[in-house]
């Protein structure tokens, strides 16, 4: 008598087996809310309250993330212009991330996958890395700090 073969389980597409599709965006949302609460409770405008950026400490030049916590704090306080002055890239990433998270959560609650991977192409990835590099270098230029400084 030959052994009975059972079909292999279908892949879960990045999810642990048995984890409902709606849980990952909800857990990420809870982590994000806790992070926002931490920024709201500990003011990043106070020097040293969140430590010092190692890149800024070693080179004297701001990294692309310098000013990001202050930008998030300003957004939470309802001051978008101050947030843009702290770190415009961080503001764009926060807004974009919130939109993607909202779409992901809505898709998960409807029990549908979010096909975000299809939207990321090689060309868009190169454009994103190029924008990050340009933002960083422009921040280092004399006088640009007033516009894009941390």
Automatic annotation (TrEMBL):
Pfam families: DUF2752. The chain crosses the membrane at residues 81-104, 125-142. Keywords: Membrane, Transmembrane, Transmembrane helix. This is DUF2752 domain-containing protein. The lineage of its organism: Bacteria, Bacillati, Actinomycetota, Actinomycetes, Kineosporiales.
């Amino acid at each position: 008598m030959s052994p009975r073969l059972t079909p292999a389980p279908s892949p879960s597409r990045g999810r642990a087996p048995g984890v409902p599709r709606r849980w990952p965006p909800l857990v990420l949302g809870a982590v994000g809310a806790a992070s926002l609460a931490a920024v709201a409770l500990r003011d990043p405008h106070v020097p040293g309250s969140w430590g010092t950026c190692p890149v800024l400490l070693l080179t004297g030049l701001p990294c692309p993330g310098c000013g990001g916590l202050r930008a998030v704090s300003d957004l939470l306080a309802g001051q978008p212009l101050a947030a843009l002055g702290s770190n415009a890239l961080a503001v764009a990433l926060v807004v974009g991330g919130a939109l993607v998270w909202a779409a992901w959560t809505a898709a998960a609650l409807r029990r549908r996958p979010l096909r975000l991977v299809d939207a990321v192409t090689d060309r868009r990835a190169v454009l994103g890395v190029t924008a990050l590099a340009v933002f960083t270098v422009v921040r280092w230029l004399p006088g640009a700090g007033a516009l894009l400084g941390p």
